[in-house]
Each structure stands twice: as structure tokens, then as C-alpha cells.
Amino acid sequence: MSTIGPVPTVAANGASIPLLGLGTWDLRGRTCARMVEQALRLGYPHIDTAEMYGNEAEVGEGLRASGVKRDSVFITTKIWPDHFRARELESAARACLERLRLSEVDLLLLHWPNPKVPLAETIGALCKVKREGLARHIGVSNFTVALIADALKVSTEPLVCDQVEYHPFLDQSILLAETRAHGMALVAYSPLARGDLRNEVLVRIGAAHKKTTAQISLRYLVQQNVVVIPRTSKLERLSENAAIFDFTLSEREMRDIAALGHRDGRLVDWAYSGRMNWD
Fold first, then answer.
1. What integer pLDDT is reported at residue 275 of this predicted model?
2. Which residues are catalytic?
């Protein structure tokens, strides 16, 4: 059934996370179910969704339609900050599973930090959800270096990742080093910079490898052992985005791409994110 071949994984505090996944932000209805089904049939081993996306039911539908065995797929979902109080978080996690029609997810994340709820309360509830078997692994998303340190201090269970925006135009070297120091993985959303990859460096390197700028951008990330979850609504893009494990960028090419990144290269500014001190 698989046509893209085996996808490498990254080890992170007891978790083994596939380096390639399908992001489902903004995919709805039949389109979402169809994209998930086709991605799994092609051999994608990882699907990322969230409570806020409003498509967990369709993700579950696509999983069942694919015919792929459940234990062959790594499913991630995320709890929205409105549900970070202890009782609400557990209820929200159970509701996610009901919509997905699963007994557990592989990874449950806190979607964004919420300064209005004590972090110790939220992390405590997240750990409880894991102990109760609703999630095999837990982690965070959009957490800064300081927030990661705070979360680790109060967590009684391993935190396996921080999911953040990361692409060639955003320098995440500090955050990447911090996650690595704690045995965590970095998961990159918007790894294709929302589709705007018009850049002469990426074009030049792509031509040298006979690859698209999208493939170069994804390869740049996975070659750092960063998990990528590109989102697409086009079936033909699934195969293109997966064709990133049959070539290697040179050290010079990696440096050239890294030089494109800036601390102010962020494209996603949700709520107060633009005012957060990410370092």
C-alpha cells in the first residue's frame, strides 16, 4: 500500500515520532477525510490535528477508510487553552478521543500557553490524562524556552516535544538547542512558510538536487531531526512533500539555508504570540 517508503523517526523521551506527518489545519469535511485517507495509503505514518481545528471526526474517518492498522499511525491532537483548568482539560481530552473514535492518541499537546491558568495545574492535568491511558505521550506547543523550563519543573511525566512554527525564514536555533538539551523533539508547523518559498537560495539548491523549493525546505528541517507536518489540500502535493528522504543537503547548503532565517521571521501571530519572548 505504501509508496513513499519507510519514514525515519526521532527518539524523544521515550517516544518515537515519525519525521514526516500531515498537518490538517483548516482542512474540513470530506476534503479532510480524503486527504488523511490518501496520506495514510501513501505511507504517511503521522497525522496532526487539534481540538480547535474542528476536524477530529474527519481525521478519524480518514484513518478508518485508509485500512491502515491503528498501531502503524502516530496520531497527535492538541487541547485549546480555554480548557486548561484541570477538570476541563480531562473532559476535553476525552471529547477529542470521542470525535476521533479512538481509545488513545499517541501524542497530546497543550496548543498554546495560557497565562490565565497556573501552569502547574495544567501540566498536572496533562500528566493525569497520560496516566489514565488517554495519551501515550504528552508535550507542548508554542512554548518558549522559559515556558519549557517551567513546564519541566512541574511535570511528573516526560514531555516529548514542543510544536512550533519553523521554516527556512525563521531562526529557531535557540529553541531547537533547548529542546534537544532536555531530550525533547521539535515539531515544525508551517514548515513551508505558508507556501511562499520564492527565494534564490532555495531555487539554486533545488536545481542542484532536482527538487522543488518545498522539498528543499522540508529536507532542511528533517536533516536537523525536526519533525515536519506540512499541510496541503492537494492530493498531488502529498507525494511531493514526502519525497525528502532520498537526498542529502551538504553542510554548505545547510548553512546557506540557515542564513535565511531571522528571529523576526514569524508568520503565525495568534492572540499574544507576537508579544512573547521566544528566547
1. 52
2. 53
